[in-house]
UniProtKB/TrEMBL annotation:
InterPro entries: MetI-like, MetI-like_sf
Domain ABC transmembrane type-1: 100-311
Residues passing through the membrane, by range: 9-29, 102-127, 148-168, 188-209, 253-275, 295-318
Domain of life the protein comes from: Bacteria
Family to which this protein belongs: Belongs to the binding-protein-dependent transport system permease family.
Extent of the signal sequence: none
Keywords: Membrane, Transmembrane, Transmembrane helix, Transport
Protein name as catalogued: ABC transporter permease
SUPFAM superfamilies (alphabetical): MetI-like (SSF161098)
Compartment(s) of residence: Cell membrane; Membrane
């Protein structure tokens, strides 16, 4: 129990530090975001209108920095992330809410599938060393060293474009109205297959290699020898004794991967112009949309923290030693 409380305290402190840094981002970056917005709009505003924009974006210089800081916390507690410069006057929470499901559907599902397939193949490769399974290791080593976006460019060249099997950009076909109907879902799935395949090929290789190496290490432990001596079946020893203990490092890696889902495949979404959170962050940086960048950074930070909390809970279930005090 004390272990769990310590971890919760650590996560609470980390969340406070991340939110505090997020508050200072637009205040330390050179330039004036409000004046940048006005210049892009090419409009002439009165002094009162300009001052209203500063108040709207929480950058009112007439209020002290401490007061602005507590106002920012108040906005977050109300679920208010401010208004986007790029999509003004749409709230940041609405913009992120529109893009987040695309990233979760693409990268979230792909990451989980990659983990399951890679871990399963890694268990077989580590347990049955010297068999045909080892022949795929050079291929996986090569694929794990290739960035997502480079595989994406190759995939577009080979399988997309005029006469290709898959579309090269976008989340759905032009003219299709988003909704829970077969035409939209089918179009969205077709557009996601190519980026999903590039992510799957590249990320699955790392799971295979890491799990295989851990299985080799665990197979030499004394409790594996004892399990064999007790006459347990090969499958039970492999799954219950070896794989369960070898899985622990991969659980931590999975937590980080899940936490970085919302921004970890930025370049893939840029390559495919996929309407997810990574592509939205790219647009926000290009337009100097500080409120939108703040909101996306906050979502990324909180998702990493939540994923690590889930990893700690998984550790407690998988490894009884972490449940013992002292």
């Amino acid at each position: 129990m004390s272990y769990l409380l310590k971890r919760l305290g650590f996560y609470a402190f980390t969340a406070w530090a991340a939110i505090t840094i997020n508050f200072f981002i637009p205040r330390v970056i050179p330039g004036d975001p409000v004046m940048s917005l006005i210049s892009r709009a090419q409009g002439q505003l009165s002094t009162d209108a300009v001052q209203s924009l500063y108040v709207l974006f929480g950058l009112d210089s007439q209020r002290g920095l401490v007061e602005q800081y507590f106002d920012y916390w108040g906005q977050l507690l109300r679920g208010d992330l401010g208004s986007s410069f790029l999509f003004f006057p749409t709230p940041v929470s609405t913009v992120i809410g529109d893009a987040l499901p695309w990233t979760l559907a693409l990268v979230g599902v792909t990451t989980v599938v990659s983990f399951l397939l890679g871990t399963g193949l890694g268990v077989l490769a580590g347990w049955r060393r010297g068999t045909w399974v080892d022949a795929v290791l050079p291929v996986t080593t090569f694929l794990s060293s290739v960035p997502y976006f480079w595989l994406g460019l190759i995939a577009i060249t080979l399988f997309a474009g005029p006469g290709g099997l898959f579309p090269s950009s976008g989340g759905f076909d032009p003219g299709v109205v988003p909704g829970w109907d077969l035409s939209f879902v089918g179009s969205a799935v077709q557009h996601s297959l190519l980026p999903a395949a590039t992510i799957l090929l590249s990320s699955m290789s790392s799971w295979i290699l890491s799990m295989r190496n851990m299985m080799v290490t665990v197979s030499a432990e004394d409790y594996i020898t004892v399990a064999h001596a007790k006459g347990l079946s090969e499958r039970r020893v492999m799954v219950t004794y070896a794989a369960r203990n070898a899985l622990l490092p991969n659980v931590s890696a999975l937590a980080l991967s899940l936490g970085l889902i919302v921004g970890g495949t930025l370049l893939v979404e840029i390559v495919f112009s996929y309407p997810g959170l990574g592509f939205l962050l790219f647009q926000a940086v290009g337009a100097k949309d500080y409120p939108l960048m703040q909101g996306i950074f906050l979502v990324i930070t909180l998702s990493v923290l939540v994923a690590n909390m889930l990893a700690d809970a998984a550790y407690l279930l998988l490894d009884p030693r972490t449940r013992k005090e002292g």
